[in-house]
Write a structure and sequence with these properties.
Strand content: under 5%
Shape: flat
Largest sheet: none
Number of strands: 0
Helix content: over 70%
CATH superfamily of one domain: Tetratricopeptide repeat domain
Structural class: mainly alpha
Length: 584
């Protein structure tokens, strides 16, 4: 009896060994000696309780379902359908002995139910009971002649046990049901070689050719088998026979090239490669595989790249309609440090396949390195159209638009990028888009929108140094929220204490708050870190020095800022009047 303390805590619908109860119930066919004859009333009760158990199982009330199945067995102890369902529960509870016993009884009582036997065979294999599994599967292969799964399961067991005679016999049985095929013949060939039965091994492939005399592919396979097993002359005869009939047969052309290489006929090998690779009728995929092997072989032989490059160039003269070969060529050139030659090839890749992200990213990297923002714009505008999910294209496009002072386009592309954000997008990337958007809004004088964008940037990444600095500086220029500005700016100075721009921002906020002495310390640090190259920083330095009582030094800095090219509205007045004048 069932232990009432056992709680079945989940339904068994996900159990991979068995089908659901809806497909498992079959009309019982028990042996006469074990037959249990039910009255109509008993049968009605059995059916009711079994179906109710199935309903409860679907509702995940599995304890109650289990009890009802047990009750079914009190009505009919030999009911395979109830035994099979109970077996699933036992196995789910990791009570394998009880589950196996129930399954065995289900199969014994209903040997014509394929799924019961299949479930038991799988269980035997999981329990590593190979002998029981083999005996049951062999019996199933006889009783269920329309099923191939038992034969394939036997193949796996026989192979692992190296019972090669039985493997061949089983393959023959499968072949008898399915007909001759390359897969089966090649497997039989492999097994015969394991058995050191070369005669039957070659006969197997030869019989495949005889079975499909019009399919030249099998003839090439036969030639390749000859080559792999040292029968070079036989292989050559097969390849020549195929090519005499089909001069453009890519498989035979490549196999013949391999024959020439294996037999040391280098000139013929090179000529055959040319014949293959420069033939417009040969599929691009075949050419690509050949060129990969050719490049690898060239490197292994230690030869220079001239031969490879010449061959690639000749192939590309044919204007390929597939991007595979030019992409391989570009990668080869880049690996050789021949970047200048590689980039036109990458553009050819994009002409053939505008969606090729790898090629576009390589070209984009070069354009960014050269600061060629016109090329960045061209590449990224097309990239946004062909690969709208690639945020990198939006990012570099926004930067390039900014360089070109196309502020409206910066705003537009950032907004478009933000519509592509998903739950998987990196928060730092999202933050950068909002930061760029904030800068663009500020350029257009839309300060409210700018500050909202910076706030969003900091929500996604509170450590976005660029957003913190610009937000803080623009607040200080407006002389508003200076405490908030100081807090944000201080984070940037802590993160990058040698950054002149961040030091200047912090110094200027302190200046606006009237902390002139402290401001001077930070502006001095900014000047020590190349701040003297910036007219804004130098003018700020003069302002701060003036407010700390050093008017002469302040005048020096103001004049220096003017020489650098400052466009400050008040700078000339400061110099003329030799005193600080606010721009407000």
């Amino acid at each position: 009896m069932r232990n009432k303390n056992i709680k079945i805590i989940g339904c068994l619908l996900a159990c991979v060994l068995f089908v659901s109860c809806g497909t498992s119930r079959q009309k019982m066919k028990v042996r006469p000696a074990e037959a249990v004859v039910l009255t109509p009333e008993q049968q009605r009760k059995y059916d009711y309780f079994f179906l109710e158990a199935a309903r409860l199982k679907v509702q995940k009330d599995c304890d109650a379902a289990f009890d009802l199945l047990q009750h079914c067995l009190t009505i009919n102890p030999n009911a395979s359908s109830a035994l099979y369902e109970l077996a699933q529960y036992y196995l789910y509870l990791k009570q394998a002995p009880q589950g196996q016993a129930a399954l065995e009884k289900a199969v014994e009582n209903d040997p014509d139910n394929y799924w019961y036997s299949q479930g038991l065979a799988n269980l035997y294999q999981q329990q590593d009971e190979k002998e029981k599994a083999m005996k049951l599967l062999e019996d199933m292969s006889v009783r269920f002649t329309d099923k191939l799964d038992p034969l394939y399961a036997l193949l796996d067991i026989y192979n692992r046990q190296e019972q090669y005679d039985k493997v061949i016999a089983t393959l023959n049985r499968i072949e008898g049901k399915m007909g001759k095929s390359e897969q089966l013949s090649m497997e039989k060939f492999r097994i015969y070689l394991q058995m050191k039965d070369n005669k039957n091994a070659f006969h197997e492939i030869e019989s495949l050719v005889a079975e499909y005399p019009m399919d030249s592919r099998y003839q090439v396979v036969l030639g390749d088998v000859y080559m792999q097993n040292g029968k070079k002359e036989e292989a050559y005869s097969v390849y020549r026979k195929v090519l005499d009939t089909e001069p453009d047969n890519a498989m035979a052309m490549y196999s013949l090239a391999s024959y020439y290489e294996a037999t040391g006929q280098k000139d013929l090998y090179q000529r055959q490669l040319d014949t293959l690779l420069l033939n417009k009728k040969v599929p691009s995929e075949t050419k690509l595989n050949v060129m990969r092997q050719f490049v690898v072989q060239n490197e292994q032989d230690g030869k220079d790249s001239t031969r490879v490059i010449n061959l690639f160039d000749r192939i590309l003269e044919q204007e390929p309609d597939d991007a595979g070969i030019p992409m391989l060529y570009a990668q080869y050139l880049l690996s050789k440090g021949m970047n200048k030659k590689a980039f036109p090839v990458l553009r050819q890749v994009l002409t053939i396949d505008p969606t090729n992200t790898a090629a576009r990213m390589m070209l984009l990297g070069e354009a960014v390195r050269k600061e060629d923002y016109k090329d960045v714009i061209d590449l990224c505008e097309a990239g946004v159209e062909t690969n709208p999910e690639m945020l990198e294209f939006y990012f570099y496009l926004a930067i390039a638009y900014n360089q070109a002072e196309r502020t409206d386009d910066v705003i537009s592309i950032c907004q478009k990028a933000l519509t592509q954000i998903t739950a998987d997008s990196k928060k730092e990337v999202v933050s950068d888009f909002y930061s760029i958007l904030g800068d663009a809004y500020h350029t257009k004088g839309l300060n409210t929108e700018a500050y909202a964008a910076y706030d969003s940037a900091l929500v996604y990444n509170s450590s976005n140094i660029g957003a913190l600095n610009n937000y803080a500086y623009y607040l200080s220029v407006e002389r508003r929220n200076l405490d908030k500005a100081e807090e944000m700016s201080y984070k940037t100075v802590k993160a990058e204490p040698d950054n002149a721009t961040y030091l200047d921002t912090y110094a200027w906020i302190l200046f606006e708050k009237g902390n002139y002495a402290e401001a001077r310390l930070y502006i001095d640090d900014a000047m020590k870190n190349d701040g003297g190259k910036s007219d804004v920083i130098v003018e700020h330095c003069g302002d701060i020095y003036y407010m700390t009582g050093d008017a002469d030094k302040a005048l020096e800095y103001w004049k220096q800022a003017l020489e650098i090219g400052s466009k400050s509205k008040t700078l000339k007045q400061k110099i003329q009047k030799k005193k600080y004048i606010s721009d407000k």
